[in-house]
């Protein structure tokens, strides 16, 4: 499907105006995964008669996202799907939308006020305990439980970055993986360019490592780019990421990426739309709605190529 326009889009999905419902969708930004996430929302929305989606991207600006949500409220949308970059924005967003009496679905990033959400606010995401754990266990197996590891983290205030990084440490603390040692750990903000730069710095400083564990595929690919520019044979290092994006799967087919974890943008997008529609109808929806992560390796990649973001 063609990538959704970054600017505000009004997408009429049906001419059934008598029962028309409008869902406002606010994305914190539109990097590769979040674009796939938005496409998942839009494509599933197209299957529901009488539904209209109005989408916004805050382009990484938290204040702009607040303003966009305020506008959606003023426009009296029936529900809001919200992807925040910072989970700590949750309390503000929750109050703003709750005061307007509008159902709210947080997508992908879990808000810090998860346990305090009112009945008409829910979360659709994936259990981050699975992502970093699956990723690091596979790296441990490939290294046979011993080796030096560098870690590339996402945005420090993002719940997924915190959880995935904690998962790495938890796996390394287990008996089977205690021979792994984290020698460097830095934030690269989900960005391939930042990861490329960080890897160049590590290589220039003479940092020795056997594996790169990244909180997402974009950073894993940035690290690969830097290592290849430096002439490092990719067969000598294990590289792992999360998301199973199309670029990541291509890198795995090429022999550069060893591990990725499918976080289904399509699954999260569809589940978020379904949850929003149910909330509009005042149906009960669980507070937490998890879409499972899945381990992707060169051995099973053929199964996942059609499911890439």
TrEMBL record:
<protein>
    <submittedName>
        <fullName>Substrate-binding domain-containing protein</fullName>
    </submittedName>
</protein>
<dbReference type="InterPro" id="IPR025997">
    <property type="entry name" value="SBP_2_dom"/>
</dbReference>
<comment type="similarity">
    <text>Belongs to the bacterial solute-binding protein 2 family.</text>
</comment>
<keyword id="KW-0732">Signal</keyword>
<feature type="domain" description="Periplasmic binding protein">
    <location>
        <begin position="23"/>
        <end position="284"/>
    </location>
</feature>
<dbReference type="Pfam" id="PF13407">
    <property type="entry name" value="Peripla_BP_4"/>
</dbReference>
<dbReference type="InterPro" id="IPR028082">
    <property type="entry name" value="Peripla_BP_I"/>
</dbReference>
<feature type="signal peptide">
    <location>
        <begin position="1"/>
        <end position="20"/>
    </location>
</feature>
């Amino acid at each position: 499907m063609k990538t959704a326009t970054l600017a505000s889009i009004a997408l009429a999905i049906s001419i059934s105006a008598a029962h028309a419902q409008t869902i406002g969708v606010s994305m914190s930004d539109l990097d590769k995964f979040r674009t796939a996430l938005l496409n998942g929302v839009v494509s599933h929305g197209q299957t529901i008669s009488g539904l209209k989606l109005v989408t916004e991207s805050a382009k990484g600006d938290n204040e702009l996202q607040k303003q966009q949500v305020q506008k959606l409220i003023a426009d009296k949308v029936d529900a809001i799907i919200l992807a925040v970059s910072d989970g700590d924005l949750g309390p503000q967003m929750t109050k703003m939308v709750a005061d307007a009496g509008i159902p709210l679905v947080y997508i992908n990033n879990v808000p810090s006020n998860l346990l305090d959400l009112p009945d008409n606010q829910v979360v659709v995401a994936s259990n981050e305990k699975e992502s970093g754990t699956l990723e690091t266990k596979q790296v441990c197996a490939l290294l046979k439980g011993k080796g030096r590891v560098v870690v590339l983290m996402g945005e420090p205030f993002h719940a997924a970055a915190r959880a995935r990084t904690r998962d790495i440490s938890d796996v390394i603390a287990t008996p089977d993986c205690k021979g792994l040692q984290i020698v460097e750990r830095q934030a690269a903000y989900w960005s391939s360019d930042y990861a490329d730069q960080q890897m160049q710095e590590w290589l220039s400083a003479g940092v020795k490592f056997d594996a790169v564990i990244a909180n997402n595929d974009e950073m894993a690919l940035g690290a690969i780019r830097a290592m290849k520019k430096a002439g490092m044979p990719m067969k000598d290092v294990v590289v792992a990421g999360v998301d199973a994006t199309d670029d990541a799967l291509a890198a795995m087919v090429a022999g550069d990426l060893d591990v990725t974890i499918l976080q289904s943008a399509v699954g999260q997008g569809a589940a978020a739309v379904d949850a929003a529609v149910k909330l509009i109808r005042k149906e009960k929806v669980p507070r937490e709605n998890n879409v499972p992560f899945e381990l992707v390796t060169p051995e099973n990649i053929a199964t996942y190529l059609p499911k890439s973001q």
